[in-house]
Amino acid sequence: MSGVDETGLRRTRRWVIGTLVGSLALLSGFSLVDSRRHSAIVEDLLRDSNRVTAYQQAAYLAAYEMSLIQEAADNPSGPERRRVLAVDDEMNRATLAIAGAAPDSGDAAEAGTIAQRQINLRQDIVWFLAMLDRGETVKAIDTLDTLIEPSHQRNTERLLQLRDRYQQRYEHNQAAARHDSDRLVWGSVITFVLSLIVLALFGWHTRAHRRQVETLAATDLLTGLPNRAAFTAHVQRALSAARPARSLPGITVLTVNINGFRHVNDQLGPHIGDRLLAEAGWRLSAVVRDGDLVARTGGDEFAILLRDLDPTRADAVAARLRETFDEPFHLDDITVDLEISIGAATAAADDDVSTLLGHADSAMHDAKQQHDSFRRFTGATGQDSADRLTLLGDLRRGLTDASQFTLHYQPKVALADGSLSGVEALARWHHPTRGPVPPGQFVPVLETTSLIHPFTERVLTLALEQARVWLDAGHRVPVAVNVSTRSLLDDTFPGRLAALLEAAGVPGELLCIEITEHTVMSDPTTTIDALRRIRDLGVKTSIDDFGTGYSSLSYLKLLPVDELKIDRSFVADMVADSSSLALVASAVDLAHNLNLTVVAEGVEDDRTAAALSGLGCDTAQGYHFARPVPAADLDARFLSAVAG
Predict the structure, then answer these.
(1) Distance CA 367, CA 486 (A)
(2) C-alpha–C-alpha distance, residues 344 and 332, integer Å
(3) From CA 282, how far away is CA 265, in angstroms rounded?
(4) Lowest mean pLDDT: which of 72-81, 83-92, 382-391, 400-409?
(5) Is the model's pLDDT at 179 over the cut of 60?
(6) 602 close to 609: Cβ distance less than 8 angstroms
(7) Which of 244, 254, 246, 231 is nearest to 353 (CA)?
(8) Main-chain dihedrals φ then ψ at residue 374, nearest 5 degrees
């Protein structure tokens, strides 16, 4: 009996063991199969997610491209026109990437059709832009309505359909993954652990994605540097951390502006401009320490946060920054030389972020206006900036008041016989409360803003009206007017000048436009073209303050000018200083060899006038002959000499 019971127990034990082993084997196999299936579902989730993102991005680019095209049609000269082809390139790459990543032959064919249609559409877009550039707006809009918009709409609708298809697959696989996860939780420890791993990976991916988004939001995509928002946040944290320790004098901000970048971007294209900015950011980063922060705050401006107990270190950093820009930029086969303007501001006890950045910007703009590479903010700097802003507002209002701006005229005398060869028109501003404001105070402010254009037009209008009055009285008095760099390089200036001449009824030969050497060298090609268009109107042209700039003789011989004005700094002491005398003599010979008339400025005495006459100088002006006076007070002996 006991033997039977033992045998039955052994049989029962073997059955239980076998059942457990079989159950474990089945459970292990089930877990393995289910895990692999679950893994496949997760992989499909990731692929479908990427496809949904790709199609969504392509649809967004399509909509963005269409909006740019429509904006270009409304405003052919706007910035959207220049962005169209760049966005179209991104759209082409996006559709080609979709076609290359399509999961099966059917989707690949559809994606390929979308990509090919987008490639074909580029020809229509290029043709559309060309018509806009030629001014054929009606044809361009017709092309937009009949070719571009229908093709864009078909592509966009198909992109959204394919996106929705993958979205549905994604949601379906997501539901299946949840179902498998529930089964794996109670199915086996291995499946449960695997689920935890998958969830952990998903959580890691989500956190990594969030960090990536945060990083992108704080990064300038062109240079890879922090953007303005990130820089502001870093400065705020630095100020907050420093205040309890009262170490604020150690926090210094530098703002850096690339002088002349706008001309590079306009003349060489945004592609070269973007590369230049990227390399500029790299150069700036290479100069500072690892603990300092370099950011691109917008356009051609950068900012640097220096965390140092010695605020004077900013001077040494600024010197190294200037040195790194002494090296030219080599971009493809183009070499570009640029300089920078730097402003520095060290935090005071009560400064907040906006105040500190504003002080640095103020110092930088002061350095730019004064043609100095580095300025540090001081109380005087701030007051000067405030005064300039006040003066700018007064100028804007003054230009709408016909009584505030008048002209005085200084005679230009022919040295051969003492006759009047012309006059130079000089602007005078009578402020309603300040009284007379010297030109040296308000002209530099005007030249930094677009107000210089209405100011130049006001001066030209007054000068031509006075020339007409003299002409009606029987006096042919040529009038010279100084024109700033900004006005001359404005493509519309020659046309507006022609309209002013016609409105005043004054022949072109009675007007002379004076420019400086700086104007010539800032953009020689545009300057030469503008001067040629001005001379086509019969207007004479002159280089003012000759000798104080850095004009190249190779440009001088190409310039379509009639007159050279020797700067007063050489004329004033030419009798007593042999070096100045030699320079004036050389300038006279140079001008005559180039068939130019020579005018000497700043003649204060008879000995200087006699010396100039002996050198063969044609014309002179200065207090020795007459001070600038209103037209009504112009000496009658001069006018009688030009009656006719």
Answers:
(1) 19
(2) 33
(3) 19
(4) 382-391
(5) yes
(6) no
(7) 231
(8) -150, 135
